[in-house]
Structures
1.
Amino acid sequence: MDFASFLIQTLNSLQYGLLLFLVASGLTLVFGIMGIINLAHGSFYMIGAYLAFVLTSATGSLVLAVVLGIPLALAFGAFLEWALFSHLYKRDHLEQVLLTYGLILIFEQLRSLLVGDDVHGVAIPAFLDASIQLTEVMSYPVYRLAISVVCIVLAVALYYVIQRTRLGMMIRAGNDDRGMVEALGININMIYRVVFALGVALAALAGMLAAPISSVFPNMGSHVLIISFVIVVIGGIGSVWGALVAALIVGFADTFGKVLVPELSGIVVYVVMAVVLLWRPEGILKKG
Amino acid sequence: MNANASLIPKLVALAIVACVPLSGESFYIEIVGKVLVMAIFAMSLDLLVGFTGLVSFGHAAYFGIAAYAVAILSPEYEAASLWYVLPASVGLSALAAFVIGLFVLRTKGIYFIMVTLAFAQMAYFIFHDTPLGGGSDGKYLNNKPSASIFGWEPFDLTNEVHMFYFILAVLVLVYLFLARVLQSPFGRVLVGIKSNEHRMQSLGYLTFRYKLGAFTLAGALGGLAGFLYAVLFGFVTPELLSWHESGNVLLMVILGGMGNLAGAIAGAFAFEAMREIFADITKYWQLLMGGVIVAVVLFLPGGLAGVPGRIKRALQGGEAK
Amino acid sequence: MMKSTFKLAGNLALTLALAAAGIGAANAADKVKVGLMLPYTGTYAALGTAITNGFKQFVDENGGKLGGREVEYFTVDDESNPAKATENAKKLVSRDKVDVLVGTVHSGVALAMAKVARDTKTLMIVPNAGANDLTGPLCSPYVFRSSFSAWQPSYAMGEALAKKGIKNVATVTWKYSFGEESVAGFKEAFEKGGGKLVKEMTLPFPNVEFQPFLTEIASAKPDAVFVFFAGAGAAKFVADYAAAGLKNSIPLYGPGFLTDGNLGAMGGAGEGLLTTLHYADGLTNAKDAAFRTKYAQTYKLQPDVYAVQGYDAAQMYEAGLKAAGGDPEKKEDVIKGMESAKIDSPRGAFTLSKAHNPVQDIYMRQVKGDQNVMLEVVSKSLEDPARGCKM
Amino acid sequence: MSTTTKNEVLLQADRLTRRFGGLVANQDISVTLERQMIHVLLGPNGAGKSTCINMLSGDLPPSEGRIHYLGKDITALTAAQRSQVGIGRSYQRTNIFPQFTVLENVRLAAQSRRQQPWSLFTKAMEQKWALDKARACIEEAGLGKRVDWVSGVLSHGEQRQLEIAMVLSTDAQVLLLDEPLAGMGSEESASMVEVLKRLRQTRGILLVEHDMDAVFAVADMITVMVNGQLLECGPPAQIKASVAVQQAYLGTEDSFHV
């Protein structure tokens, strides 16, 4: 690999890692604060992508679609928390997992009924539809860089929320000790609702932003679900920073794995995970 | 105490199932055979989830590894000996469970669920992406293993009725074996771990070793189910290891009520029956299935096994008034 | 009084029972049972629907009959899940006792079905799945294919590129059987024609992060790139390839699945791409024109290659039944009839090889707007080599 | 194991220190426990008594310092390994298997002394040695009448007794008991004190306790901790007389009976 390629591959890794972070951040947040393994996270990603498709078709602009889509996703998340998850906090983790498993089936079928099973594309907003020449034959799409910027902004915003706000105080003090949090005089039901809605919105946002480059298709959620899980496992329970570090590690492992050890590229990421677990059974940045 | 009282319905159920081949309908013989295989699989998982408190979301890996092992170990044009491929495949699953257990048992609770899922996914990709077992297309097992011992053939697995009773016999043996194991000192420790692992440690139990033992045993029995599946259908695919399969078997355990071996069997029957019936009624069966899963989780925390108790309580409540 | 009521009731019951039995017998004799095992949910749901539509369209054109008999459909959603494939196939074969098994899209599922068909001696027609093995080492008298083998369009592309004088090609595909078989088919023809594969790249299915490969391609600068992708992954690859600016400097080729059904999703990135397939837009035969008009009328959809494959599956079975005098029970005759049939397909007429795979023309097509327009026939009557088939 | 020498040093902790992040929970705590002795750890809430007992039992590794049992360094052993050498503990919050019977709780504890995980076909309930031992320990802890009760329904005091029976059945020579009298009525307390006195005859007991009457009734040695530091260590009379202890702890009346 020559130096120029190496640099571009590094850029690829960073960009992919940041996108993965965007997908995984909502998962780790819900996971860390509510103690729920949300298998339907991939479905929220899928729902986001379809929202982007439907709303972009209707309004003609992805930006507008995102602006409209985020409140919809937040409301949808809050509704699900109210209707379903709020009844299960005292139950076993297992039952919560199965609930989300049931939701995947429901969401996929509803998607099929409402939007059909075709593959769709979403147009990149005109002002981002350009590319930067990197080598004589290769250029880099501006839209990808823009997504990276959004991911960085989001990471900073999450950092701010976690470090500087009351909600963040909970997250840091946090985990699922309801008694302690209630003793602090915080309405935990409201916090859970907000966190879950936020988790859904983050997944949906990831889906909306990824829609123009990944296209929109049935079962797209299950593709990102597992890799998000690996990131959360590597990063450590509920740690947003852990998720960021882990997403970047996975981004690099996947990119360079494909180029350097193509035979093993499917399992490189899992090998990384196994090594991390040997070294730190609770993930790189265990919360607390 | 009321072992005899609960024994009778079990024997009746066993007798009914044993009559299935009398129908002569090969589809039903095979489909019930498959459900029995899934019941064995569910029991093996229940050992972990219901009795040891280890919620594994990657149990399909051990099912799939043994299934692949039979397909790979069997020569292409002749039948392998059952007495070689059976222990070998089950042993491979046990070995995989042992090695993976060394990693995953270092974690606890919700984290354990995720890590088992991730490791199973790794196993999935090994079969999906390497030519080891035919890659993504899967692999045929063209000749079912032969049961002959020095020329004497006690039964013939290519005969669907023999195959059915072979599976049923394995199911009964696994049930009796697990019931016995749970009574043993080892089993009592597992139940203690589920109840309060920390206390078990302070009583001097190296709980990691017991959990590893349980994980390996569950992997081996899950492998036994996978072996039977491969022999029954003669076809293996990476999808057998996918997380959907792990989720399905967890559902069976939940449906039957965790920590109840007979419940796990009932859960397998209920799950498969639901799937069949919904798929027959409508194209949108996934919607129904998803709805049922959500409803069971919300309204039936004890699974189906909890239903009689609920009815009893409701009736008693009524009488009291 | 009482007695006579009983008698009446008894007679009535007897009559009804006889009538029921009569109807049953008539059913068994008159209807031909078709088992459709296709994906109606999941990633390939659209393909399953198109195949079903195509099949039913032919039956309708044929007066609602096959071999002169009414058709009774039994449908199973295979979910493209190989783990349930054997069970699903058995359901159609052993429970519903279908005369012919039609399916499916996913190669893994089709292989499982083919085993059931072979073991139970049930006729099976594969309306899509391209795994070479189906009409290769795993071929069977009972298994036919109305679509293609993975080898066919790729081999044709290899020939065509070699003929064009292209020397160095890089390949990218998913690391799964269909992808690897496609690249192998391409490689065989391309190297025979004097070309050379400078880089063979694979990534795990269904990973769609192609950027590392685009970077590799840009640094290797081959004369051309050959890829196999399908569905959403294909749309993404083509879009990424264009966005990376490679489309202008290094031409991209692939089997037609790269662009079929995906042009909308690519949003113009596919314009001008050359692909090979056994079907195309802008064919000039009358059969195709009629097929398309009818399809669009009936289903309010534009037909695609999958619909054609479904349509031809029905045609093939009709040919077989005709040869057997309309009796699906005469399997030997049905098989012989299908083997010797010349199918008048919308894609152009084809016959079946000894291994039961279509011997068909492969077209070079170019993307123009939302169409894959036929340019030329690059391989006339291309026959899959059916390696490993002992039939 | 069974030879009981009076004043034999069973457990010796030297300068144990435990930090949590920047917080020092225990600093340079040294404790000695001899056979036939009840040694009480005394101190106000937050003094670090639980941290100390957790370090002794192996639930928490010390940041610094060494622990010896019968002269052997056991600092690196886990809780389970320490149980195996002869250190048993009970917990501040009742820590039993509530769905098991009293007998099964104690039998499970007894079983830990002769683990045979490979004998999958032996019925645990037919292992006579474990049952006999469990019954004896239940008797010794004063729970003889409750053998077949489901432990979850026992009274609080009885559950504490059950914990002691469990520890006894592990052949523990050292009993680390974290507030065994907490939440007990006076009658239950008195009978527990009797049990403790009986147990002292052959073992060494380290006790964390708030109940002053009970402490002075049973203690042979008292260590007073304040703010994670060792304030004073000596026989009850010395502690009662200590000005430092009175100032720091005993002086405020309301902390007498916490």
Note: Chain B touches chain C through 30 residues (CB under 8 Å).
2.
Amino acid sequence: MCPSITRYNFHTYSGGGRMALGLALAEGRLEDITDELLNIVYRCTACGACDSSCKYNSELEVLWPIYSTRAYLAGMGYFLPEHSMIIDSLRKEDNIMMKPKTDRGKWAEGLKVKDLSRGEKAEVVYHAGCLYCYDPELSIIARETVTLLQKAGVDVGIRGSQESCCGSIAFQLGFQGEFIKFAESNIDDWNAAGVSSVVTSCACGFGIMKSVYPLLGKEMKFEVLHITQYLDRLIKEGKIKLDRSIKSRVTYHDPCNLGRKSEIYIPWKGIEKKVLGQFILREPEKVICRGWNGVYEPPRDIIRSVPGIELVEMERIKEYSWCCGAGAGVKQCLDDFALWTASERIAEAKSVGAEAIVTACPWCERNFKDAIAASGDDILVYDVVELLRQAM
Amino acid sequence: MQIVVCIKQVLDPEMPYSAFKIDADGKRAIPPQGTPPVISPYDENALEAALQVKDAHGATVIALSLGSKLARSILNKPLAAGVDELVLIEDPAAGDLDSFASASILAAAIRKIGGADVVFTGRQAADWDAGIAGCAIAEELKMPCITVARKVSVQNGMVRVERLLSDGFEVVESPLPCVITVDSDLGELRQVTMQGLISAKKKPVSAWKLSDLKLESPPPPRCELLELYIPKRKRVCEIISGENAEDTAVKLADRLFEESLL
Amino acid sequence: MGLSRDVYRLFESVVGPENISDDPAILRSYMYQPFGCKRGVWADISPAVVIMPASTEEVVAIAKICNRHHIVFKAMSTGWGIHNVPGVEGAVSLDLRRMNRILEIDGKNMFAVVEPYVICAQLQVEAMKKGLNCHIIGAGSNTSVLASATSVVGYGPDGLSMGYSGRNLLGVEWVLPTGEVLKLGSLSTGSGWFCGDGPGPSLRGIMRGWEGAWGGLGVFTKCAVKLFHWNGPSELEMKRVPPNYVLKEPIKYYKSSLFSFPTLEKLAEAALKLGEAEIGYFISRLSPAFVGLQMAAGTDYVNTWNTGMLQEMLKYAFLFVIFASSEREFEYQQKVLAAIIEETGGQVSPISETQEMQEQTSTAVIKVDAVLRSSFHPTGGFNTSFGAMDTVDLALNIIRVGTELKDKYIRKGALVDDGGDNSATLVFDQGHLAYTEMLIMYDHHDDESAEGAFQYLAEANQACLDKKLGPPIFQISQVGKGKHGAFGPACFNYDMWLRKIKSAFDPNNTADPTAYSPPEE
Amino acid sequence: MVLILGELVKGRLSTNTREMLGRGRELADNANGRLALLFLGDKVELVAEEAIAYGADDVYLAENPQLGTYQADTYLQIIEKAVKDMEPEILLMGQTSIGRDLAPRLAFRLGTGICMDCVRLDIEPISGIVRMTRPVYGCKALAVMICKTKPQMASIRPGTMKSAELDRSRKGQVHALATDIDMSQIRVKVMAKVEEQTDSVSLEDAKVIVCGGRGMGSSDSFSILEELARLLGGAVGSSRPPCDAGWMPSTRQIGLTGKIVSPNLYIAVAVSGSSQHMAGCAESHTIVAINKDPEANIFAMARYGIVGDYREILPPFIRRTREILEGKGGSRCC
């Protein structure tokens, strides 16, 4: 389930090994920070598979120590040169794509949609996310999404060139200071805009908004929804009609950040008492999030609701899903690893006879598309929204 | 032409308030987790100035940094941006130096490098905000010094600089060699590219100790730091409100008038 | 103490640069500190290099290089314990992670051929597809099949019906410390994997001894293990969510019950009779603490414990599971069980009759995946101590002595109070043998607790000598360095044999002897 | 002796100089020494009496056509010599484009230390040691320092000290200084001086600053801030986002990488109050915040705040302010 250990085999690349490494650093048993060390630390998509599988019957936190290790290293100024590019772009242009901020609104040009950053009001703000804003091949999906919502009678607006990154990548790379700034300013903007819900198509954005934003202790006067949750509602309310049938055998890939990583993490605060000799009793009890509360059914329900579609499941799904490989900056900085991870998943999809992989995150889609292009595979990749549009 | 740019590694001045902590006894700021140090912003402008000159006339640009612990992944950035060589003076003894001490060490390093036609620094560093080092380097090297530059060009052996004034700017000319301290108006350091990163890996980096500069210990500080503290901002914000926007606005205006602030 | 670049390059030429490393970052995760820093022989010992061979040929090549350059090596598979890493500085650690294939499942002759990194769960899933099942050791289904069969103990509560790992071992491919390949059993005559003993005297005893080679005799690269009849579903479908997965469908002819007895002796008598009656699928002594930790955590558990209810009901109890292949057999086994329980004054614990418990135990019993939850929950620090695979009588003695000694440390507050008698035990191999193992839980981040645990283990070892309890299973490998020397004289000088074997098979002493035995002087 | 390097704005003492005189007077009295002012320029004798009226005991004038415009190499020679002759205990100058340029090099040549950009000076009565307080780490912290050698030098941030009262009756002496300049030392030549046309006052000198932030939404929306600034005789500034978005010229940016200001009244409109921005204005006397988000950090820094949309607040606010300034203030005020 863990791409990193599967690919590199040394124990250090596994969740357990990463904890051993982090502990060694924290306890000062590992002074020299080698390039190999950084390589190990960042050749990990922070997909959370280790965390979910460990919590199959234990109470260990594995993912957050991985974050902490990165924050610790970043604080000392250790990271990959590629990361500094991303972070600079974030600081200067509010995006991680190394593109000018002024172009951020371009994807929506020509759309008749409210721009909340200009003081217009709407019920729902649609957060496209960096990739949808700047990836010409994918931004069409963002446009389709907005039109889809409008067709369904949703009072939706966007933030045009004033939309900014969710901070997810910064957080996962250990640049938590940078993350806090983006998270807080997003919350401020959305509160100020007075929207009732923030809807995003980017699972990475959704994951961080759901699981980490709340930890900042800022009041969030809005509900965070992933587009699949919102569309699922609309379909069930009959506001979206799917009449065109699509004859296809598809499988669904769970984006980590929509699934196991969208569950809020509750850091434990309290006192540890020793009872029965050494028994460590935490008061209050520590809340363990095992990843099975992620968004798993809505996207599947949407797919099932498309006439003619046959949904076949892969072996590794939901909280045990295999990562697409793009997460935590790996796509931008260590693409070879990202593509390898994707190819494993593609093989799995083909093994269950799927003609297409349907997913719900631009990063998964981008990475699968790249891997397929590289290998010349014939399998197709869709976003749930693309599927819906075809069926309307 | 040889250009030296002095860059300083500082705690990220844009770190969130919550992250900024001070060790009162040690009289120093505590490096936070999750917020890496950065190259002082004005020093990045200085790098950009140097690279602009390089673009126009061709030059060898050397970035020079001094500190007790220097993070390679941060100081390599100039190389990726187009600087040709990186010289680090990393020495435990170079922990907290005052501006004049740093200047004399940097000057010594510049001599060892073989001098410079132009030395660029930021107008001030984002930690102590003093704005002394640049001028002091000039004095150490007996060079003319032009501060707070917003535009730099070199023509036939002279630099032409627009230096920022409170009510505009003045155009000055100086013979080479000289020291120029740079303002943010000059423009941000260019974006680092992938190719840049790759080429950076091949560029020379030398790390020296004070002893390599024939310095046993840094010069004593000219000023003494007695105290370093985070000011208790009296967080008493009087929130003005009324029946409606109109009323609220009027209340505010009157309040300010009472306090004779208008 | 690093390797010379030349030697490193030699190893590199065998496995390729991707599969070897001496980077401190890598080495750090191949070290253990069971009792916190600087306690016990294993604390803070770093291998000089980690190598990941992918085939027997590569292992052979590595072993030969080690012999030529007098470098100690030690192989590990799934790495469940400190005895998997080298016990001496400057050694080569062989991580066999890449050798993880099930090479063959012979349905007709009921055996499987596996590589070192194949875990029980993996084999069980494949076996079940063919209507077969495999023995799983008590530690759980996430452990290496081969390691238990060749190198480490190998008892499991399903041993009642499926023997123990050592007994189930058939053909073996063995890379000797010198790098020569030795094939055991029918394999040696090229007639396949089906039998553990070939013509001539059996080598299994020499190879495995009673409790395993502990990495001291080279590397076992392939082995065949017995599989057993399975009449459950070919795929186990789960329902509910973690940490409470249970089988979707209850299994036919399956019944698990918790029986408690007035005295330890009665419990043992019952277990013995059940074994001799050759009924049952699974039997395990469950301490009150472990049962409690299966059902509750944190405050709930502590409160339940403090009521004394668990200790009361389960002081001397075991879980007994019937899993028959026909209606008639099912009834027969239940009758026999009822009779024996009556003779021995046992009682069915009401807990076990709840549907909750039936569901819960079904997966725990078949997949043997529950123990971790109990053992690591309280503190994160867990260890085993006293133990033996021997007779019921010895098991009883060990429990008596062990409980007494443990109580002392529980009173000191060094160990978690689990009622003292926390032993995962009982008859296996259809009653011919009995197993016991005294478990302790301590806080390895707490200096006093770690120190206490460490002292307890040392005292436990001493007690084995004083009270004639035989060498403490597992412990030797842990506090051990050459400890066999200490126990040998009390046990027919078995250590002399170990040393002779070691010298004969490992003239250059290149296979790390720490957990096994040094050669003859 | 406390020596102050004076500056002129349009032929009169700069505000900053008056503020230094104010504090300098107190320091001098405290050490019962004299307060002296040093002036360089062309025909500056006029300011002498003004300086005395503002508290100077001695005024030293270095007059020379060459000193008409500031040039570091020239000024340095003269000041260095003057200071060496006078041997003041304390030497103050403004944190202005001249002070910034001059102070460090002067300190270097005098072999003494200097604290730049001080916002506060306290003197220890007996020792006469001056504790100099200055913002560091982008105004996130304050540092208290002392200068171990004489003269104790400091540059003073404009607007942070109280100017002395004008008292025409005060008496003092005026001294002329020799101004022979060694031309060989003059290397940097000033070719031209360009005053940037801004209808409002420059940010550094402004007593009132109206600042717009990201929440303004567009460049046109800044016009209403211009209107307010004009009304209050202040200047318009901007936080970084509007400059990045191109709504405002970067020369208007207030903050870490822009201008550092400390006006009497700072009206922050739709400004969130990031550390980057506050670094430029935290030392303002009074901050007023208008923001839609009650949780915006700016409210933590402000003295007065309104939670609301500036589009609704500003028009009536401007109307009312105009009334007040035209003396038609409501009964409560008159």
Note: Chain D has two domains: 2-185, 208-328.
